[in-house]
Amino acid sequence: MRRPYASFSLLNLIPVPIDFAFQAMAERSDRAPARWRRPFLHWLDGVEAGWAVPLLIGCFVAIWTLYLAIAYAGGGLHPDTLEAWMLGQHFAWGYHKHPPLTGWIAASWTSVFPLSDWSLQLMAMANAGLALIFVDRVARQFVTGHKRILVLLLLMLTPVYQFHAQRFNANSVLLAVWPLATWCFLRAFETRAPLWAVAMGCTTALAMVGKYYSVFLVTSFAFSALAHPARRAYFTSASPWISVVVGLAALSPHVYWLATTGASTFTYALAHTGGNAATSLGEARNFLLGLAAAMSMSAVFWVLVAGTRLKQFPADFAAMSPGLRLLFYVTMGTIVLPVLTSLAMGTDLPSLWALQGLFLFTVLVVGGTSYPIERFYTVNLTVIVAGVALAAVLIAAPIHAVYRNDHGYEEGRNLYAQAASELTREWREQTGVPLSAVSGDGSLAFATAFYSPDHPRHAAPFEYDQTLGLPRKTSLDRGWAALCFRDQDTCTRWMAWASSQTGHFVRREFTVRATLWGRPGLSREVVALIVRPRGMRMIPKSAADDFSASRRGSE
């Protein structure tokens, strides 16, 4: 006869007697909690009262914004965030590479908050916090009480809502939009009310103008509605058709922009196609592995919470409520459809494109449990999440800042502000007027547009194309400048070609050095090209001599 201490279950992944001990401990703790647990339990009591979830998300946003402020002190903003801000400087129904939502949000944010690193870092984390609020709106369709908190805590144990979110771009903007659209779809399907149908149409359109990858979410809505047993009641109502009409109407300005501007966003998207069967299989494999890795820590903690109760999963799955089954179909669609598309069309398929959909799995897992979860586990997970956040702020963030100050970034982001300041100074010495346009390396140009006091517009010529050219005629007339790091061969070759196309330019080379809390860091050489406005008088002879010497030195 097998002894109890040697009994294991493949489903449970942990020894059965140990699991029973934890269960007994959890039950005793819920009956007679330790004193340090009581404030947490009081907080959990406030879930249904409406203040516990906002408090959790508010603390999450605050502490991870502080992390970003420390970890990237002197490090500059990520180029994607700078690009989003730059795009938003002029309103349009579309932009070169992506649909317009990121630019709209960045422009709206900076119309209220100041132009600074901390402001845009707060914007990124506020987007993550808003995402968690909408996830909670989805979760409360299926769970109540502290289980809603458990859903959020498991997501906070992934790297999605902190590190992925801090790069505010066309991927991270979907963190908030996808759960919002999903919530509206669930409500529209369940109630078939016109207002929810309108909301679904608007939010699915919003997802599409965030990134075209959202077509997989929208298609999953249609697939799940067709697969659900209540499909006849839904499709014979006005709800789906209201959603379609409203969605198309909301998308029509962007569609018109595509039709009248050459659809450059489609051109950019098609650049991710062209793989063969072998590469597509590899992309699909890495896609699934990447998503599994992102959820791995949450999965481990869920196993510890559920314990031997995991063996009830088949029965819970079979007894899934109609609403949860609808969400299950949506979840499967957001995974299966991208994989099938990649295999059929040979497209790239990085897992970071789908990270905004991981909340679907978490809601399914927690919402599908038929058994109660002791608050003991929710309190423990809260302490773990808080401990990880505090360790990140107090330990990891300063270490990261010091390391990057000494070793830098490939894109050179901890030199952005210095390069922008030096270019602006050189430009004003040469022209005496504010800098109006900047080109060159994309990241440096975005940074100069943001960090320069003149805030020049980005005049990169054909950034979404493989060929390089000169900025537009208006930039040539007003004058423009360009920046490259000295070791960027492609950019410096373009700069040499651009110099040969204009007869009134100055070239400068200077060194910029990173600093962190007064401590000097790495340095890097920067090349600047200054093209004065047409008709402006020649620069003084001494400046011309300096330029000639600079050219001779570079040759």
Secondary structural class: alpha/beta
Q: What is the tally of beta strands?
A: 5
Using only C-alpha atoms, the radius of gyration works out to 27 Å
Strand content: 5-15%
Largest sheet: 5 strands, mixed
N-C termini distance? 85 Å
Major sheet: order of its strands? 2-1-3-5-4
State mean pLDDT (0 to 100 scale).
87
> What is the count of helical runs?
24
Question: Rough shape?
Answer: globular
* Overall helicity: 55-70%
SSE order, one letter for each helix or strand: HHHHHHHHHHHHHHHHHHHHEHEHEHEEH
**Unreliable segments of 5+ consecutive residues:** 1-15, 462-468, 538-555
Can you characterise this structure?
The chain is of the alpha/beta class and about 550 residues long. Helix content is about 60%, strand content about 5%. It is globular and about 80 Å long. It starts with 15 loop residues before the first helix and ends with a helix.
Main attributes of the structure:
555 residues, alpha/beta, 24 helices
Strand-helix topology:
Elements (H helix, E strand, L loop, with lengths): L15 H16 L6 H8 L6 H20 L7 H9 L13 H10 L6 H23 L6 H11 L3 H5 L9 H18 L2 H15 L6 H13 L3 H5 L3 H23 L2 H7 L6 H30 L6 H6 L3 H24 L12 H10 L7 H33 L8 H16 L5 E4 L1 H10 L5 E2 L14 H6 L1 E6 L3 H12 L4 E12 L2 E13 L9 H14 L1
Parallel strand pairs: 1-2, 1-3
Antiparallel strand pairs: 3-5, 4-5
Helix pairs in contact: 3-6, 3-19, 4-5, 4-21, 6-7, 6-9, 7-18, 7-19, 9-10, 10-13, 11-17, 15-17, 17-18, 20-21
